[in-house]
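Tutorial handout. Part one gives the primary structure; part two gives the three-dimensional structure as tokens.
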Amino acid sequence: MVRSPGHPVRVMTRVWEARPEPPGSVLVRSGTPLGLLAVVHDLDAEPTWREEWIESALAAILAEVVGRRLVSIAMPLLGTKHGALEPARFMRLLGRALAEGVPSDAALRQIWVVRDKEPAAEILAALEGAGGDEPARRRDGRPPAGEGT
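Part two.
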């Protein structure tokens, strides 16, 4: 069932009174599934995104993940759709954020990287280059094309 946002006057009042969240922050929306909304754009700035905002948002997301003992998360490639960040660069930022912000005893075991039209081969190559212990795998668990049988 789709919830109505309410009377148009109330909706416009909420929009008018809304205050922007600082870039690099994360909003937590409770529910199932839990929503972690990264703020990586400032529409008053040019360009609207900055790499340091994406780094800050990744750190904040991972702090929430560790604090809530989440086992798996799905994450889009922040800054690649409405910004000019290359998918491979995002994956390197994510790898660094994981290394710096997730202790070895954390519950996190899986990150589902949600891509739009970004080339999967580029993303997998960036994962391989991140120096992880385990090779990148496709969703079906098989190695990337051209590797193994």
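Part three, for discussion. Residues 131-140, 143-149 have pLDDT under 50 and may be disordered. Helices lie at 8-17, 51-67, 87-101, 120-129.
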